[in-house]
Records
---
Amino acid sequence: MSQAENAAIVKRGSKAIRIRHGGSEIFATSVLVFLAAVVIFPLIMPFMFVFKTQLEFSYHPWAWPKAIMWDNFINSWNAVRIDQGLKNTFLVSIGAIIATLPPSALAGYIFARYKSKVTEFAFYAIMVGFFVPAQMVLIPLYKMEVGWKLNDTLYGLFLPMAAFGIPFWSLIYRSFFANLPNELSEAARIDGAGHGGTFFRIMLPLANPATILALILVFIGAWSDYLLSLILLASQKNFTMQLRVASYLTAYGADRMPKYASAAVISAAPTVILYIIGHRWIIKGTLAGAVKE
């Protein structure tokens, strides 16, 4: 076979490979574009309603608004009592962070640095809670809160959130601390630092990616919670943003859709802004915690 024939065969083979590779790229890109549209559409949809009058929404619900109606935000703020909802939700989110991060960090450090049969048993016992969904324990949780008079209180809401979150974040912190060099803690002990000093002055600052990741995601999870709030809160004064917006929709339905959409936009704005600001830390913390022990 001549060199020209060999070159022609190689050229046809490389062309076929490029065609197959190009086809796979087109398919993968199409799938990613579709998934992106599925995620982005719910974020864009409220803006198709929020600036319309009620009459304009009734006749042209899926058209872009002809004019900007900022009054919808003012009316929904007053109708939904968004100021009280924002206050309650902020307190619940901060409480969830305070009740989740310190015990998770301490547990993760102990499980990573003081390995024994006792700590391994305790670790796997805590991990059992990670596999128990909240829906399975709503009835006993409600009965327990009623018995302890914690129901219909904000701290009675963020404490269960912390209980459901501690197993997962203990696992994340354990992964971070296990991958830190042992020489750091040994050097700290040589310098006279005790267990507490080694943890607070050396180890915990090195786990900042995990701490920031936990802070952002716990805040977003607590802010977006609806199920636990619906079960554990009863009085309007304690309603979080999600309950206030949902109760407004239940009361008026689609008859007040522009106001409902504006309230939903206000409710989602803090978490969207926080994610935009901290998405780099989320990626950094996730990748840093993915290293195998």
---
Amino acid sequence: MRGLPEDGVTGESARPDGPVADGSIRHILIVAYLYPPTNVVPAQRPAGLRRAFVSAGIRTTVLTSAISGSYEDDAAQRIIRAGDLRTRFRTQYQTLVGYREGPLEARGAPRWWTSYIPPDPTAASWFPQALTHLLRLIRNDRPDLVVTTSGPESSHLLGLVASTFGIRWVADYRDGWLRDVEHPAIVRPIDRALERWVARRSTIVTAVNDAIATEVTRQHHVPAFTISNGFDRTVLADASDERATLDPTRFSLVHTGTLAIDIDETVLHRGKDAQTFLAALALLLAEDPELATRFEFVVAGRISAGEREVLTQGALGKIVRVLGLLPRNRALGLQQAADGLLLIPGGADATTAKVFEYLAARRPILAVTESDGVAAGLLHEAGEHTVAEATDPESLALALRAYLSRWMTGASFAPRPDFDLDEYEYENLGQKLLRLVGGQAGP
């Protein structure tokens, strides 16, 4: 997956240094720190939006970090990989995003000094070289619209720069501002100033759900619009057939992605909620040892050595299978082949792309999250999914028992007939964003 970053996009005619006279959008620049081929959830949104823009007939360029890896035809795909100091020093982050192969022993806390870099460490590791590419692109092939999507928040700093050239700019929030970052008091005034500048200087603010959009509006008195996370049917169609991977004699509950059981994991709630789920599962096994003959919990994703030990210790070792990190088509295939899916969003306001992949798989979902959270509301709207809070192992065990009792008996799951899953397909989400900015594809 590793490769040298490209200097820029070649082979295209330069555009004039000024906006398109009729206001149409003929060239979009998407700025995203993570982008395929890295196989992580944050890379899916910019990739899905890019496909939607291209489908609408709009020439689209991507500016991303070299830490995401590269394709042999990056230049032909109009993907610019800006150099990143994170590629030069061996760290756990390289393994987490797949830039470097090999086992992950354990997730460690970030180095203390990184908390003094506002808005986040990528402002030092990636932003300077990304800025060079942005200025070169504006000079040689000026975009009509820039879409910056975070986190990390350093992507929005590039939007701030683009706005000074009169370029329309969509600041897209995948999470609340610095959701997983806690800076020392001396840095926080800079955080607040940057957040205010991004919200007020962008042409439009978008967010992945109403809760984040409402918070932006409340804090900064600017309208913010919801462009949900979603799924891409073309990607789902390439999913492999993974039925043989699962045990046909047992109910297979599948989790794909990061569990983050490690104590030092910074993702909000997720690690703690995952630990509570495993404790609840252990309680069920203690009450009914025969469950091990009828049930399996299958985990596919980047798992550290410490996490693997927790997942397979004691009685859990009889029902847990750890497959490790799989290619994206196999992970999607597992979702579609599963009897049920485990979702741990990681906070009340979290609605990652995985929620919508799960919904598209049309399997009963067990979500360990707040009952009044955004993901819970979406699941209740979509079908007879189960939402259980990770208050304590005992109460979660009750919810898990009820979930298994219903779906292990052969009950048939179907989404609610009035739930419009197509609304969350990236083709439609991209069109919605274009309508917000008043754009139309040029000739």
---
Amino acid sequence: MKFDRDFFGLEDARRLAVRLREGEAFRAHVQHRLRLVVPALVPLALIALACAAATAVFLADLSSWLTLPGFLLAPVVLVGSLYLQGLVFVLWLERRALALALGHSPRGGGLGELPRVPLAAALLLLPLAMLAGLWPVLAVVLVASGALAPLLYARFDRATGKSRLTRSRAAV
């Protein structure tokens, strides 16, 4: 299997960074809701940390020969899972911002349309399985909190009112 930019979502990430940097409407939407965005990212960071720790501990438990590779792999798992989860969250946030800017109610009971997930997100399943094998209660709590983060974001965002963007500013 060829690992190209689409596999890791690098092209999506590049375009998203450009839109966030140069697109006034999306940047204003995120800045206005920063007090909601940051807490929504906390569960994603905790999931990434737990997956990295689980990778190191799981491999060390298998064999003493796997301890060093496990500890060398842990930062890769941390950065990779942070990247994948963050990319999907910010892509979702962008779709939600666009729907609100155009005067539409986000689909899915206010949650909005889910973005296309990179194929590399499947690589997150292995560290999550290791986490569930080592600490099942922690895995359930973290996955549930990660799933609830967008739901709570959407709920509190609705409570703060509609997007301050106008249709004309969204089109720019």
